[in-house]
């Protein structure tokens, strides 16, 4: 740092640091301390909010099974998303939830018996995950409009899958505690 000039005299470079550096350090300490206090208070409030609301209210409160709808919009066009949805559906069933997969858009193709078995990653194919899901008590409801668009008829649906009406879809969505999109 070069020398500073005040009035007509030159001041040594360390004058600025001695005068304002100490003030700056003090202010920094005050702001840092206030930030820690404020952050701690907000953290405690956030923790209290999280603790007061359960992630799975019905299951943890002993009121029966939590009802989950997986809105599956991806199918053979995105096997990664479809596989993740199927794996999550099986895991939710294993943890005691009531799970319905609502297949729409491209997701309806996964439940067409004419589709070849496909695998994205992991140990199990889509068909294997589907069989585990249905065997575990899961339900698959297929959008009637989406099925019609891609040429799926009721006879083309996998065993355990049903073509729903819009009224069925509305009932399932309204009864759900959670809806998860894929």
Q: Would you kindly provide a written description of the structure presented here, covering whatever features stand out?
A:
This protein is of the alpha/beta class and 182 residues long. The protein has 2 domains: 49 residues; 125 residues, Hypothetical Protein Ychn, Chain: A. It has 6 helices and 7 strands; from the N terminus they run E-E-H-H-E-H-E-H-E-H-E-H-E. The strands form 2 sheets. The protein has a 5-stranded parallel beta sheet, with helices on both faces. Strands 1-2 form a two-stranded antiparallel sheet. Strand 5, helix 5 and strand 6 form a beta-alpha-beta unit. Helix 3 packs parallel to helix 4. The protein is globular. About 10% of the residues have low confidence.
Secondary structure topology:
Elements: E1 4-6, E2 9-11, H1 13-52, H2 57-60, E3 67-72, H3 79-94, E4 98-103, H4 126-135, E5 139-142, H5 144-149, E6 161-163, H6 166-175, E7 178-181
Parallel strand pairs: 3-4, 3-7, 4-5, 5-6
Antiparallel strand pairs: 1-2
Helix pairs in contact: 3-4
What is the helical fraction, as a range of percent? 40-55%
Unreliable spans: 44-62
How many β strands by DSSP? Answer: 7
CATH superfamily of the largest domain: DsrEFH-like
Q: Number of helical runs?
A: 6
| N-C termini distance | 59 Å
Care to give the gist of this entry?
The chain has 182 residues and is α/β, with parallel strands linked by helices. Helix content is 47%, strand content 16%.
Descriptive labels:
globular; 2 domains; Hypothetical Protein Ychn, Chain: A; alpha/beta; two-stranded antiparallel ribbon; 182 residues; 5-stranded parallel β-sheet; 47% helix
């Amino acid at each position: 740092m070069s020398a500073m000039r005040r009035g007509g005299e030159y001041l040594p470079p360390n004058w600025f640091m001695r005068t304002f550096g100490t003030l700056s350090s003090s202010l920094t300490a005050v702001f840092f301390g206030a930030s820690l206090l404020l952050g701690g208070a907000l953290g405690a409030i956030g923790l209290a909010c999280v603790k007061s609301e359960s992630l799975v209210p019905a299951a943890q409160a002993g009121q029966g099974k939590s009802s989950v709808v997986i809105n599956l919009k991806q199918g053979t066009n995105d096997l990664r998303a479809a596989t993740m949805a199927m794996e999550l559906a099986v895991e939710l069933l294993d943890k005691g939830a009531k799970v319905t997969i609502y297949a729409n858009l491209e997701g309806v193709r996964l439940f067409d018996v004419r589709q070849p078995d496909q695998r994205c990653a992991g140990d199990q194919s889509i068909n294997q995950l589907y069989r585990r899901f249905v065997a575990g008590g899961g339900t698959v409801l297929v959008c009637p409009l989406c099925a019609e668009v891609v040429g799926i008829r009721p006879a083309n649906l996998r065993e355990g899958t049903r073509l729903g009406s819009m009224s069925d879809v509305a009932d399932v969505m309204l009864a759900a505690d959670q809806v998860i999109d894929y």
